[in-house]
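Standup notes, structure subgroup. Blocker cleared on the adenosine-5'-diphosphate input:
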Amino acid sequence: MKLFDKILKAYTYTVLALIYLPIVILIIFSFNESRSKVVFTGFTLENYYSLIGNYRVWDSFYNSIWTGAVVTVVSVVLAILMAYGVSRYEFSGKTLIDSIMLIPIIIPEIVEALTLLVFLVIIGIELSPYTVIIGHVAFDISFAYVVVKARMAGYDPQFEEAARTLGADEIRAFTKVTLPILAPGIAAAALIAFLESYDDFIKTFFTRPPGFMTLPVYIWNMASRRGFPLDLNALATFVVAISLIFAYIRNRIERRVY
Amino acid sequence: MSYAVELINISKYFGDVRAVDNVSLKVRKNEFFSLLGPSGCGKTTTLRIIAGLEEPDKGIVKLDGKDVTYVPTHKRNIGMVFQTLALFPHMNVYENIAFGLRMRRVPESEIRRRVREMLEIVRLTGLEHRRIHQLSGGQRQRVALARALIVQPAVLLLDEPLGALDLKIRQRMMVELKRVQREVGTTFIYVTHDQTEAMVMSDRIAVMKDGVIQQVGAPYEIYMRPRNRFVANFIGEAINMLEGTYIEPGVVETSIGNVRVEGGAEYVGRRVAVAIRPEKILIGEEVSGDVDNVFSGRILMTIFRGAFVEYRVDVAGFEFIVFKPHVGGLARIYQAGDVVKVGWIKEGGILLVD
Ligand SMILES: Nc1ncnc2c1ncn2[C@@H]1O[C@H](COP(=O)(O)OP(=O)(O)O)[C@@H](O)[C@H]1O
Ligand SMILES: [Mg+2]
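Run returned:
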């Protein structure tokens, strides 16, 4: 069994290395002085300065953030209402809803993106930042739903009943007791929803109007048009850093369980 | 005078399960009233119907004389202490207790005063800023009690609130609950499967089984005069149940011989049981005086119980349980195999028909 343990360990480290090594290298070379992708010639922050001076970066960053925020709010509110209904009330079709909500997670995103685009064209809706938002909500809601529903499964309805015996009507019992108790789960769902939207390339690419760029789209543009400029490494590092911050916050919140 | 709570022919079904079966109850004002019965007999459901958390399929619920059968919970002016307590985990002790007043939009200064008052009554002063998970079981109990009482409910409903506590704290909380009830002068309806809790605290007890009320009475009444076999068996530590036939006025024929009983002439010819509490039975080499029933037996087992000695005595194949207190200094303790007499006066036997 010792040998098996060792193989397992080696395997784990290999997988981790394959996943993270490219990112580590990317980060290191974002500080590289020369244009070389192979040799590290000296440390510089020049790449980051050039990034800060680039208004297109700021513009796409701004787009990423505001669409992400709208997507998050819409997805989470819808997810809470659905999860609450499904958890608290008995009705036929409950399991069907559960399955339907999983579909966007399962099917390939490109299929989803393509069908959405076709659908938008058919019903004659012009592409705009709002079509991007619709596209994101359509699958972010699934992630939010899964997380919120898991939290509600462990939620004791007696909290709400206790509130009602203390004089709260159903709405106040929900807003003063249920929502705050579920808040950590809701925050986790919101962060996941935001990260999914912030990370997204395919959907955005298909549903965006001309000229509308989010960070991932901008990176793709840079990479495809100008070869591989160095400030791209810096930009990618920046994107990764933001993702890591959100992932870290999410982990901290997830641990707060009542 | 109207009753604090009145249930009139209440029934509640869950599918085929008859959780509450035609229950009628009248709970007086300022009474400590217990619903006592084994697990699954419908106690919680009855309580939830009073609270409005469950709608009865049949019957009427009255609070303070008013029909509230279809009044929603938050308008009923009741308080409830849940079996799980259901203290709000996102609030500290103060906020938990203040919740009911917040819902009633009481001014902040009055909330402060009343919470302080309540903390004193349940003896939690100084803990108002603790979070719930930082409290002991007994303290949580008190918070739940304070939270329910602060709105001055017309009736407080308690669902096995001491179930999760260990014995010592439970005993202390029983006394505490009784004290608080006197202090605030509120009607308490207390649900439990533990007869000791019911006996210690209650003014009156309703014994329940399979959704049906078996008997309502003061603790001594249901102990001394149980109405049927179930209540006789359920209440008290043990009881000797002699099955037999009522053959002539004052005499029941049983497997150990004829037994003299008090009253019941109307039962002649019927199957009855004579139930005798273990402490009502005299035991000795001779049982003298005006003892109506005396039988010879042999000690099967002797158990020293501290305040008394418990004997198991075989009488013609029936095993008697006898509690003998230590009266007047050191009495002889019989051992297995000793031949003894057991006896009781006829008023010590309870005649049971159902
Ligand atoms: N929500 C429910 N759904 C189905 N059956 C229930 C429900 N609540 C209670 N019951 C059933 O009703 C009966 C009485 O339950 P309950 O009032 O909780 O008893 P107790 O509190 O005396 O233990 C039990 O048989 C229980 O299984
Ligand atoms: Mg119960």
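Discussed briefly. Residues 1 and 65 of chain B are 9 Å apart (CA to CA).
Next: hand off to the docking folks.
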